Amino acid sequence: MNWKKRGLWLISIASGILLLGAWGLFGGEFEFIYSPSQAKIKNPEKTNLAQVQSGDDYSPETLELGRKMFYGETFGNEVFFTDILGAFDGPFTLANITKAVMALAGKGTTNLQVELAESFTVGDKTFQRGELFDTGLDVPKGAFFPLGVKIKVADGRLKAGISCAFCHAAVDKKTGDILQGVSNTDLNIGMILAMGTNTASYFSHTDIKSLQDYLTDPSREIMDSKGKRVLLPDPEALEKAVDRQIAEWPRGSIDTTLDYKNNPVQIPDTFTLGDHPYGWSGQGLIGPYQGLSAAINNAHAQNTDATSQMEISGPVLGIDKESYLGTLLQHAATPRYRYDPSTSEKPSEFMKRVDPTRDVIGLNELVPTPFYPKISYVSSVSLFQGTPGYRAWEQVNAVSAWMNTNLVPEPEVKVTAKTAGREIFERAGCIACHAGDYLTNNRVVPVEEVGTEPTRAKGFFLSEKYFSEPSLWSKDTPVPVPPNVKPVPLRVTDDQRNQLMLAWGHSPTKGGYKVPSLLGLYWSAPYLHDGGVAVGRDLEKQIGVSETVQKGIEPNPFNSLRAMVDRRLRERVVEANRKAKDITPHVTGEGHAYWVDEESGFTKEEQETMIYYLFSIQDPGEKPR
Q1: Dmax of the chain from CA atoms?
Q2: Residue in 308, 312, 331 with CA at minimum distance from that of residue 321
Q3: In 3-state terms, what secondary structure has residue 282?
Q4: Rounded average pLDDT over 426-442
Q5: 353-360: which pairs have CB atoms within 8 A and are 24 or more residues apart?
Q6: Rounded to an integer, what distance in angstroms lies between the CA atom of residue 393 and that of residue 476?
Q7: DSSP string of 333-386?
Q8: Res 414: pLDDT
Q9: Pick from 105, 138, 162: which residue ends a domain?
């Protein structure tokens, strides 16, 4: 891009931002999110859908809606992230994000570096004002804002929310084009959230088991749901504790369960066809699209709006509804949403008054399930995403259908001796679990058997306290759901129920992890659910998460996959992770002790041949590209 074109490009962005600001001051509303054209996609959608489950909808209209939802729908979560959590009111500001994108001059990046607006300390680490911060945000070539980030002007304020593409799509370093379904493995979610001014509103994703230690200010007294006078926690003390824990998430990882454990999981890819059950533990197993819709719903309904959990906070989290809501809202970034405990108003009354979606639970666009307010195997918060004017589950189901068309990009390595690699894979016994076209037997394995870090396998165990049999609204039910609509029960076989008990960590099990498909391994390093098996190009110095991911060093797919099957290299990885001070202790890279190394009778050359074979696996039924 020459200097004249670059100047015009920068002026156009700056002018647009000024217009947005002026529009907001006069009460106007506007929203924008980048939605790529097909020409910007490096890996096109699948053409072969012969193996999809009968009864699910893959019509062109549904697939087009799913694509639109994946890239552009936030279900209103910009309110939680901007107005409640204050993600952009601290060191990490929307103005400086825009400034960083402008500096790219249309070139794109896989790691937007943003200048910090103020100094920030979390734990024993300090970031200085003016320092460039590695966000891991991907900006496609020619885009005006990061992938998956919606900018919205509403209530006289500039806000930002996220769509599926924020986590589940990436930018190709060489071309600046988009890799659909490839997870953003360096997305610095933990630190971005920790820089928010009210990250305490995300406390249910940490190991803070009780708010008791933070009830130190007698002036923060409220009335709980039982008429008892109780205290809200000290907001500054709680903020520091939550910031410290969330900042321990490795890049490319996020905590997705309410289990009082700071145990983040790696963002998964969305090469979903054939990879059921869904979620790392396999909790998405029943319902539309073989459980994929349930897993997608959990990601948004639970994890992008903490207020959606207010009706289950008592029976599941053991925190009274009023205390829970008061804790979330007492230090909200925007005054409109900031609850004042000195008033006589209960937090739930205040919430109902300011809620932009006041006819439904939570701030996002959500709809009660037939079993509301209890939990079931199709919704961990008893709600599902739904925008008025659509039909029940229509948007989520469309995303499921479209994600099942995500095609694995070709690996950036040349592969030979595929047949020999397959023979080694089978001789090593890997085929016992990683079988079939998608190299998975589609089963949930008890955590005792697979041996990986165990806490996430029990991530949904608290839900057992408040559980119901699963059911759905019929597909033609409008949103909002009219009164007196009869639900449709979901049939659960004995085998499915046993698998679901493992996936949800319900007694008497200790939980389990699903056998994932091995398609797309080249693109998904580091490995295991905790992303703990990370090795860089340097086999001496770049071992473990702290020496790769946390330093902005991309894990090498070949060396990381070698650590999955070579016990001596893995021992070094696990040891390095255990010594690390900058990641949560629940990221270990341990377990899955199935070796293809010299001690198990394989040469180094055979090990390498098998690794290259695993990189070569393409989607079944697709023509070679």
Answers
A1: 73
A2: 312
A3: coil
A4: 96
A5: 356/76, 356/79, 357/76, 359/480, 360/480
A6: 9
A7: SSGGG---TTSSS-HHHHHHHH-TTTTSSSSSSEEE-TTTTSBBTTBSSSEEE-
A8: 81
A9: 162
422 and 613 Cβ atoms separated by less than 8 Å: yes
Looking at the 3D structure of the chain, how many domains does it have? Answer: 2
What does pTM read for this prediction?
Answer: 0.94
Amino acid identity, residue 409?
Answer: P
Domain boundary among 146, 162, 178: 162
Model confidence pLDDT, tens digit, residues 304-361: 999 999 999 999 999 999 999 999 999 999 999 999 999 989 999 999 999 999 888 8
The whole-angstrom separation of Cα 291 and Cα 295 is 7
Separation between Cα atoms, residue 505 and residue 497, nearest integer Å: 12
Q: Count CB atoms within 10 A of the CB of residue 207.
A: 17
Domain carrying residue 532: 418-469+496-616
Strand pairing category for 120-122 and 169-171? unpaired
Distances (CA, A) of 474 to 55, 345, 485: 13, 38, 9
Q: Which strands sit side by side in the sheet containing 149-154, from one edge to the other?
A: 30-32, 149-154, 157-162
What are all long-range contacts of 310-314, with beta carbons under 8 Å and residues at least 24 apart? Answer: 310/348, 310/351, 310/361, 310/362, 311/361, 311/372, 311/373, 311/382, 312/373, 312/375, 312/381, 312/382, 312/466, 314/225
CA distance 318 to 215: 16
Residue 1 lies in a domain: yes
Taking the C-alpha atoms of residue 383 and residue 361, their distance in angstroms, rounded to an integer, is 8
So what's the pLDDT on residue 15? 47
Burial class (CB in 10 A: 0-12, 13-18, 19+), 568: exposed
Q: What pLDDT, on a 0 to 100 scale, did the predictor assign at position 2?
A: 52
Sign of CA dihedral 347, 246, 271, 39: positive
pLDDT in tens, 483-507: 999 999 999 999 999 999 999 999 9
Residue 113's pLDDT band (cuts 50, 70, 90): very high
What residue type is assigned to position 265 of the chain?
A: V
Q: Is 569 part of any domain?
A: yes
404 domain residue, yes or no: no
Domain CATH for 574: 1.10.760
